[in-house]
Amino acid sequence: MRRTIAFAVAFLAVFAGVAVAQTSVPITVKVFPKVTPNQAGTAAHPQGVHLSVKITIGIPVNDEPPLVKEIDVWFPRGSLYEGDKYPTCSARRMNAFGPRACPKQSIMGSGGGVARADNTLSFPRITVVNGGQHVVYFYTVLNNPARVQEPVAGNVTKLSGIWAYKLHVRIPRNLQIVAGVPLVLKSLHIAAGRGSWLSTTSCPASHKWNWKALALFNNGQQIATNGSVGCRS
Fold it and tell me: How many C-beta atoms lie closer than 10 Å to residue 31's C-beta?
């Protein structure tokens, strides 16, 4: 499974968590992840993968869920992130010039979504950018209700034991509330992968790559969730 697979699904976890956070609100979340190929590589010959994740979130128009502040995602053994083997781009460069000023080979994917800002829709655009061995950026652009563009950093920590990596993402306040208006995500699609940047080295006997996620909301609630993606040896 992919580290980024879990990030996208982590995003999912965040909003899945919303459904648990406010049980009186009938929120529905559907996630459609796809890893290509799903046949795992080996430690000697890692298999680079391309990840595509689609997420849909159903929230009643008159209800406002708590806003997500932080996301943590854990990835299983058999995951491999090789951000140190590809060109990188810094947050400073993206803040000044956007991802168009980054090395072409540092752009690892893209995505987009639909969000509700009061009674109007906003369409965030995302560019996935390699930040190196310990960072991946999700450069996000919003045009409604105001123009916002910012690289959101995902900090990657290598672990030992049953998990291979932990990804930590802190959502900037100006992407939670724009021009005084809270944004409620309705759908999201992220696709990423280039060469061996995202790779697999094994598939468990269960033929499932597991993931775990934790979302922290602005009302103090913490929601945990988990899932898996099928794989082949």
Answer: 18
